[in-house]
Write a structure and sequence with these properties.
The chain is built from four helices and no strands. It is an all-alpha fold.
Length: 138
């Protein structure tokens, strides 16, 4: 077995991992979006600062769900997996924040709609990097 890959999964196992990833990702995205929108609406924070706060809360939801559900049985130790996941999530957040800033600047669309669109666009890359790097056996 190669260090860089999981043992081969059956098609139904792969679909199960993807299904959990989608559910956990949707939960984390909902937390991210709700925290950000609440920060803008009630605390009157600028959207980019609120986006950062949303990510900080959602990253805990995301790691916990992926560690326990999406990639259960991965065999990676908690701390290395958490650090790799934080790198992936942080990189995704930087892409998210840059895209969000550009869209806020260049379009007249509502901030909440733009944030939802950006959250969806970053999700696919997060899955691939998590599957093939963060949750690898050491």
């Amino acid at each position: 077995m190669s260090r860089s890959h999981f043992p081969p999964l059956s098609r139904s196992s792969q679909l199960g991992h993807i299904g959990w990833f989608i559910m956990v990702g949707c939960a984390a995205a909902a937390v991210h979006w709700c925290v950000a929108i609440a920060a803008v609406t009630w605390a009157k924070w600028p959207p980019l600062l609120a986006n950062a706060a949303g990510w900080m809360v959602a990253v805990g939801v995301s790691f916990t769900g992926h560690h326990l559900l999406s990639f259960r049985g991965h065999g990676a130790a908690m701390l290395p997996a958490a650090l790799r996941f934080l790198c992936i999530s942080g990189g995704g957040f930087l892409v998210n924040e840059a895209a969000y800033a550009a869209l806020l600047h260049w379009t007249g669309a509502r901030y909440d709609v733009l944030l939802a669109a950006v959250l969806v666009l970053v999700a696919g890359a997060t899955y691939l990097l998590s599957r093939h790097w963060a949750f690898l056996r050491s």
